[in-house]
């Protein structure tokens, strides 16, 4: 044998020399679930180790994460039922606790990159990302609501707007709305290839945002989120979002969709984000709880694999732990 690959694995020093992929806290985004009560800290049964927090707890949490070099956060609101309605009015209300929290975070930690969530589902009594009109999830009526939500978030200080709704044309629509209002510096992280996945369960538990049982509307999101069977369709979505002014293209979920991450990374010069979603984290945590997997090693390998596939940015509930280990 003239060529022996094992020579390049013979010591830690050699392995370090030839390592192809690096992953550090700078690539990671920590998701945050925000509650209205300032001092709240509530566990999520299906996602151990992650909490729904009020703003006081969130500020403490961010301070903690910053010690480990985590600078980017993506925030989601757990909206009380009494604030929900069919069009998500509360999303742009002056008293909205999510907008107030963004202001408080950016005031206290101006150096962080704060990413929003734009979609109707946390605010909607129907639990859909778009507005339901006459039994239909109405694309173009939803765009107006998403535009207003995005402008309110930019005004509150979010650095990057994160449309997670999968309506057609919303990136261009939001970009124009932001620019019209003078927020030309506010970025857009497009949930470009977001699949109708079974792995969002714990997230929907956390926000109580699952689609409701309605008369004429399916209680799944398959008419707007992508079919897990499709890969080429993701390239089409990516072409739209890139042309409409997205600053990042996201693939979601991540681990079952590494091929999609790879394809988008090859096809587009835009930064690629991957959302390692709640269910993907939960199944690893459940196995670790039973002693079936080593949490640190398995979580690190999962994140590294997402990065190796071509993700520049990884959103994961493991971000803080990984940052602490590395
Ligand atoms: N706008 C909805 C939204 N934004 C982020 C997630 C899931 C994230 C996760 O599971 O961690 C979802 C769930 C859904 O589409 O129902
Ligand atoms: Mg699209």
From TrEMBL:
Its EC number is 4.2.1.24. The keyword Lyase applies. GO terms for molecular function: porphobilinogen synthase activity. Pathway: Porphyrin-containing compound metabolism; protoporphyrin-IX biosynthesis; coproporphyrinogen-III from 5-aminolevulinate: step 1/4. PROSITE patterns: D_ALA_DEHYDRATASE (PS00169). It is an enzyme of class 4 (lyase). InterPro entries: ALAD (IPR001731), ALAD_AS (IPR030656), Aldolase_TIM (IPR013785). Pfam families: ALAD (PF00490). It catalyses: 2 5-aminolevulinate = porphobilinogen + 2 H2O + H(+). Keywords: Heme biosynthesis, Lyase, Porphyrin biosynthesis. Homooctamer. Belongs to the ALAD family. This is Delta-aminolevulinic acid dehydratase. It comes from Neolewinella maritima. The gene is hemB.
């Amino acid at each position: 044998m003239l060529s022996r690959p094992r020579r390049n694995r013979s010591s830690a020093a050699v392995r370090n020399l030839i390592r192809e992929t690096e992953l550090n806290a700078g690539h990671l985004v920590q998701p945050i679930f925000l509650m209205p009560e300032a001092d709240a800290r509530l566990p999520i049964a299906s996602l151990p180790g992650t909490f729904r927090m009020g703003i006081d707890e969130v500020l403490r949490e961010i301070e903690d994460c910053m010690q480990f070099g985590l600078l980017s956060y993506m925030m989601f609101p757990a909206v009380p039922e009494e604030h929900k309605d069919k069009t998500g009015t509360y999303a742009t209300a002056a008293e909205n606790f999510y907008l107030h929290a963004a202001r408080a975070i950016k005031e206290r930690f101006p150096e962080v990159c704060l990413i929003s969530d734009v979609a109707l589902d946390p605010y909607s009594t129907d639990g859909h990302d778009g507005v339901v009109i006459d039994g239909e999830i109405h694309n173009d009526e939803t765009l107006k609501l998403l535009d207003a939500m995005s402008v309110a978030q930019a005004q509150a200080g979010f650095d990057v707007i994160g449309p997670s709704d999968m309506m057609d044309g919303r990136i261009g629509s939001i970009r124009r709305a932001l620019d019209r209002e003078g927020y030309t510096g506010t970025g857009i992280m497009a949930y470009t290839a977001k699949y109708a996945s079974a792995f969002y369960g714990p997230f929907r538990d956390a926000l109580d945002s699952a689609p409701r049982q309605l008369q004429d509307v399916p209680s799944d999101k398959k008419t707007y989120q992508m079919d897990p069977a499709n890969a080429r369709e993701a390239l089409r979505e990516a072409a739209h979002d890139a042309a409409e002014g997205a600053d990042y293209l996201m693939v979601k979920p991540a681990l079952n969709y590494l091929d999609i991450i790879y394809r988008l990374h090859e096809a587009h010069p835009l930064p690629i984000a991957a959302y390692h979603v709640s269910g993907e984290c939960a199944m690893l945590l459940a196995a670790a709880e039973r002693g079936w997997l080593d949490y640190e090693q398995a979580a690190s390998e999962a994140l590294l694999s997402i990065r190796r596939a071509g993700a520049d940015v990884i959103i994961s509930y493991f971000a803080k732990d990984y940052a602490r280990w590395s």
